[in-house]
Amino acid sequence: MGSDGETAGDRSAALRAVGLSKIYGSGEVEVRALSDVALDLYAGEMVVLLGASGSGKSTLLNILGGLDTPTTGSVLFEGQDLTASDDAGLTRFRRDYVGFVFQFYNLIASLTARENVALVTEIAPDPMDPEEALAVVGLEERMDHFPAQLSGGEQQRVAIARAIAKRPKILLCDEPTGALDSKTGIIVLEALESVNRELQTTTAIITHNSVTAAMADRVIYLADGRISRIDRNASRKAARTLAW
Amino acid sequence: MVGRALDRKLLRDLWRLRAQVASIAFVIASGIALLVMSLSAVEALRESADAYYERCRFGNVFASVKRAPLYLQRRIEEIPGVQSVQLRIGAQAVLDLEGFAEPLMGRLVSVPEGEQPILNRLVLRSGRFVAAGRTNEVVVNESFAQAHGLQPGDSISAVINDRKRELRIVGTAMSPEFIYVLPPFALVPDKARFGILWMGRKALEAAYGQEGSFNDLSLTVLRDADTRPIIRQLDALLEPYGSTGAIDRRDHLSAWFVTNELKQNEATARILPTIFLLVAAFLTNAVLSRLIATERSEIGLLKAFGYSSAQVGAHYAKLVVAIVLLGIALGWVLGAVLGRISTGLYAENLNFALLIYRPGPSSFLIGALVSLAVALGATFRAVRGAALLPPIVAMRPPAPPVFRRRRGGGGRLRSWIDEPTRILIRQILRWPRRSAVTALSFAGAVGLMILSLQFTDAIDALAATHFGEALREDLALGFVDPKSTTVLSDVERLPGVLAAEPMRFVAADLSSGYRTHRGAVIGVGADSRMTRIFDVERGPLPVPPSGLVLSESLADKLGVRVGDDVWVRVLEGERLLRSVQVANVFGSYIGTAAYMDIVALNRMLGDRPMVEYVNALIDEDRLPALMARLKNLPAVSTVALKHVAVASFHEIVAASLMVFVGFFSAFSFALGFGVTYNAQRIALSERGRELATLRVLGFSRHDALYILLGETLLLVCVALPIGCVVGWVLTAIFVNASGFQTEMMRLPLEIQASTYGLSVLFLLLASLVSGAAMKRQVDHLDLISVLKTRE
Ligand SMILES: Nc1ncnc2c1ncn2[C@@H]1O[C@H](COP(=O)(O)OP(=O)(O)OP(=O)(O)O)[C@@H](O)[C@H]1O
Ligand SMILES: [Mg+2]
What we know:
A: Rossmann fold, four-stranded antiparallel sheet, B: six-stranded mixed β-barrel, six-stranded mixed beta barrel, binds magnesium ion
């Protein structure tokens, strides 16, 4: 594991972003979603990304997870440059190491909750059972329902079960509690917390809810495609003690 | 375990897309079915003909003479390569059936009493052979008997050697010699007006004074023997006896027509289904790419989870293969069933006594492989397109190309176009490539319909030219022997005859270099107004004072042009050999005619002026009286009425060429429907969410349907004129394909406005009907689930 741990002392960077920028479109309609972002995610830490709508949070997360490519800059995973690897390399990276929760859930409509999870566990090297993952998010009763038969929040929990089921090294969650009431939201955050604790999963969570920030090691603020501030919490609050 | 969830998704997707799956499978099936049907039918006909010839010992060489002694048999058998020899008496006769107004023509053929001939055996269909000692017994060909409802026990009268005789029918039969029962001078078979009468040899000998002699010969050769030297020796041997020259089986009238018919059908069977399969392949490609394009976000999602491009590709390949396999299976079954049916229909037209339908695997395999390759190609391209994108980009709906707002126009456009229309137009303009492909597939469907419907136009145009412009006589009379020109005034005196013109018909070999054509030179008067040399483009051509005027197909066959010399070997009388210059060449759709001025022809032959035929214009009202007279004119051997010829031409050609064309049209129409249905179905799946959202926002069902169908209909309208052009081009490719142009027939490129109209109308109708099916879907759009789920 290539590490130079510049600020966090004992921890090494699991993911390192260097000089990332992302520009959509060109000419008149050019949108600068990220400009010159540098960021280290340390192994096993939990970070929360905060920022106004359109500030570039999703863009950053997608690039970190190898779902999208930056316009310039690079992402290093365990010292390897992801932006330099080919499609097969990126695919392997996503398959073996990364769990995603998408802002829009992205469940496959023709598969049940269990099958949506199985879709990922079938190709992962060391997965949980789909049933187990669904139990973590409290959906063991609804395993055989199709997405259209689930509420928005339930769909989001399926998406989270799908992300944690592979026991990922890196867990990237785009507004995982956006559609949930505080009680369910906290169940979900507890699940993320326990995966982070027990598996040492490096976890990044995008949220609009600043209360969530208290459970992170670090809080990263984005504004206009740049990191405007990084706060380090002296101590992490347990998810179940949060309330909003 | 890998892929179980994916496989489950596959099955569910197939079920969810079942309507589309069915219509795509049908498009594929129609291409394959048509290919299998046509190729296997041709294969079956060829095999059946061969088996029929083999089983009935159809001769390899044929000759006819004026009269030759039977003792020549030994000398003929001694010609190296000859296997068996059959010497017969044959004659032409006018028949008379009670209750049938016109005189009928008949061919009398001698057979041994009470047994099968050694060659050209009969297949007895009812009754028995003629018995020894019964001079009035005949066996008639089955199709003639059927046309008149004749059965063993009935009788028929015939003018035999100037004497009218009553004959008793004792049996009906088929023969490999008369698969194609062609009356003299006719273009197409006529079941009713030309009969074959097999009569005891003794009876015919007596009637024609041919005791101890023969005038008709056929022989078989040893396996693989070359017939050319045999024909040469035979010609030398028979020359003193008035031989018109021996011919190979290839040139035997019936066999020649069967071969040509098969050739033409084979060309049709190759070219049409190939065009069809290619168009179907294009359509398959278009619908599959579009189908997979709608799966783009799922492809992105699978990639995001870490499925490799190959795994994702395999998944969609499975989907497509399932659809294609369904189409292939359907196509095979349909093709084999229709192949059998169309073989039967052909066989009924042609008088095949036995039918072998045993299709080989090649047409099945070709169809399946082409379809599979095309479908997988389309899948590969479409999946690759989505898999190469970064997953997050693929997961988003495809970004429209930057939409440039035009200055000026936009504002005004906005003011008078309502919102749904703007949405609809923008859809089309935003995806120009997809819109173009969809429009092109509509155009392809229209083109196929035009190609299949134009056959009727072409046949009509061909008949109009041939019978309306070239052969304008109402009646052609042929004589037992060439007559002196005084016969003209005899004919003119017949009741109802308005005018008469002479015509010579001289059997001859035409050759240039090593190329030979066995046919005839037709002599027409320079001022002939009935039989004219009619060029399909230039109109009637003058009859040159000397030299030959060849039809284009004959000139091509001989490889000669205007100004070249052709050797003419006359096959009768003194068997003159003359070199004659080609004075002109005329384009014609039918046959291989060679015309010459009748005076020049007489001069060349050194005869006093003679005629073999007289053409006449007649008064329709007095036709019955004329027919009654002709029935009793012994000198007349041929009575060819034009309106009968035209009718049987249409009937026979319709029944034969139209077997294919009928199925072909049905398929092209089905294809047109499949394509429009599919386009709308896919539009619905691409647009379902958007339409549901619009509905939620307050747009009416009507608006939603309008947006959905408007797009297709607009594309259909764009496609229609293109489709007409495509149809014209496909037709041009087809009629010019060398395989289709046989010696017998070339098809004109004549597409009627009604053909364009019908095809265009049908596609409009098809899109409206499938639109009506869409209406139900749009009315029942599940607004709630659409808003709840993100795919
Ligand atoms: N495909 C795209 N084409 C053009 N611009 C885009 C595209 N995707 C994102 N953007 C723009 O990039 C910027 C950053 O988008 P991003 O989705 O990262 O924001 P976000 O911080 O996740 O916002 P939110 O909290 O609303 O989800 C936005 O201004 C957005 O409009
Ligand atoms: Mg976002």
